[in-house]
Design brief:
Number of strands: 10
Low-confidence stretches: 6-11, 13-18, 202-206
Shape: globular
Strand content: 5-15%
Order of helices and strands: HHEHHEHHEEHHEEHEHEHEHEH
Number of helices: 13
Mean pLDDT: 93
Largest sheet: 8 strands, parallel
Radius of gyration: 19 Å
């Protein structure tokens, strides 16, 4: 086992003795945990052969060879962390097989010296997820096959929210003391309206953004309660991603909930360096560890240089979106939902490597390796 993961195991055991089950970590407990962690640097990861979470983990499309090869690219950059999305349907259909495949991903990542941030639920893209063979990518469209977890049928019906409890508690209980898991990021952008892609729609009735936010708030409150009852040694979080963060009072209700419930603060930022610095300064008032679980959209001015150096200077964890160009097609911009591209863009939106391991930009790769201390 890699040295930093062994240290994480010791630190986690100490934290387990200090944090009472069912309670949010105090600022001091969170800071003490973070002192024993490396600077988390890595990416949001799915293999280039998978269009979404379901295709990554379903048995007929699970691809450990590609996962191993591409995490080798991550190791070559000095990455020590990946953020991985799961899905409740995988648990419901084949719990033991799903857990086995998650275990394989953790083992492969660990062999490359990489820890994992687990994301059980996601509020972005297709609200009608279905098991089985996933559709082919829509040509030149960003993330054309990614799916929400849970789907709108469950999220939009508060009487069905409790159906997710066995998944959340069973998953976290199974891995509650696993040193290869760095954090539980419970619900990604749960209130995202998807206005530029699918819109915000349920299966029975049209619903507006306020309705989705209402449902996301109701579910998220339960998620933190369920997760804490599972008593994980790893911290819990869910990232703030939009709105006014200039004061706690200026935040919208959902963002305040995420801040108030998270053991460590996570956030997304796709702005330029000045915007990133402002957002970090605003969140530092909470005195908790900060992890940026999404950034890097080149045409938006969110780039490795200088964003990554700034985050390293502040020990703000950094996970860029995208890694190896593939079926998610995130080399294309969000706007391709309205106007599809017409071939490979000159400036990639996300992603670092081509499938054969060739960097999109050699200079970027050299910059990342310099910051992570990788020797040529």
């Amino acid at each position: 086992m890699h040295k930093y993961l062994s240290l994480f195991m010791v630190a986690s055991a100490l934290m387990q003795n200090l944090v009472a089950a069912g309670e949010r970590w105090t600022v001091e407990q969170a800071r003490d945990w973070y002192k024993n962690q490396p600077w988390f640097v890595g990416c949001n990861f799915g293999p280039s052969t998978a269009i979404n979470q379901l295709e990554m983990f379903q048995p007929e499309s699970f691809d450990p060879e590609t996962i191993d090869r591409e995490l080798g690219y991550a190791e070559s950059l000095g990455f020590n962390s990946i953020r991985v999305f799961l899905h409740n349907l995988l648990w419901e259909h084949d719990r033991e097989g799903f857990l086995d495949r998650v275990e394989q991903v953790l083992t492969i990542a660990d062999e490359h010296g990489i820890g994992v941030v687990m994301v059980p639920l996601d509020g972005v893209w297709d609200p009608q997820p279905k098991l089985g063979k996933q559709r082919d990518p829509t040509p030149h469209v960003h993330n054309s096959g990614w799916v929400q977890a849970p789907g709108a049928e469950i999220l939009g019906d508060p009487t069905r929210h409790d159906e997710l409890k066995p998944y959340i508690q069973g998953l976290i209980s199974h891995f509650r003391d696993d040193p290869r898991i760095q954090m539980w990021d419970l619900f990604n952008e749960g209130d995202n309206p998807n206005a530029n892609s699918y819109g915000v729609r349920g299966t029975k009735t049209e619903w507006g953004e306020d309705r989705k936010t209402e449902m996301a708030i109701a579910l998220t409150k339960k998620l933190f309660d369920w997760a804490r009852a599972a008593d994980p040694s790893q911290p819990l979080t869910s990232g703030v991603w939009r709105g006014d963060w200039s004061s706690h009072q200026s935040m919208d209700e959902f963002s305040r909930l995420l801040i108030d419930e998270s053991d460590v603060i996570s956030f997304h930022n796709y702005g330029n360096i000045d915007d990133l610095k402002t957002r970090v300064a605003q969140l530092q008032r909470y005195r908790r560890p900060l992890i940026c679980t999404e950034y890097m959209a080149r045409p938006n001015g969110s780039t490795f240089d200088p964003h990554l150096a700034f985050m390293k200077s502040q020990k703000v964890g950094a996970h860029n979106w995208g890694f190896v160009a593939g079926k998610t097609q995130t080399i294309y911009a969000w706007e391709t939902w309205k106007k599809p591209g017409a071939g490979e863009p000159e400036v990639w939106f996300h992603d670092i490597f081509r499938p054969d391991g060739t960097p999109y930009r050699e200079k970027e790769v050299a910059y990342i390796r310099h910051l992570t201390g990788v020797k040529d």
